[in-house]
Design goal:
The structure is a single chain. The strands form two sheets. The chain has a three-stranded mixed sheet. The two termini are 23 Å apart. The chain is 38% helix and 18% strand. The relative contact order is 0.16. It has four helices and five strands. With 121 residues, it is of the alpha+beta class.
Length: 121
Amino acid sequence: MADLNRVRVWADALIRMHLDASWSFGFDNAKLRAGQCDFRKKRITVSRYLAARFEDDEIHQVLLHEVAHALAGHRAAHGPTWRRTARELGYVGGTTHHGETAHELAPWVGTCPSGHVTYRH
């Protein structure tokens, strides 16, 4: 599992290498997404809950994904400009986070008669 202090060091280094000093990094409390690039605040965040569960390589890919968003710009979304930028940074593609992984933090858990479980945050 990734050490949060190490994640912060990696994130700060990536920001220094690829973005200007107006950008910052932080952890957030997201339970359904791994990372976010906030263009208004010029801030890249990573879920503290999911980062603690991810392996080092997985969290590094999340950071590259978000830095690519910052470089490509808001309008790029996940289009060709973003994909090219992400590849140039070393992002290998794919989704590192599939579904809700912070289930134990869900305040509401529902089970249907067929046994399917649903978590709501």
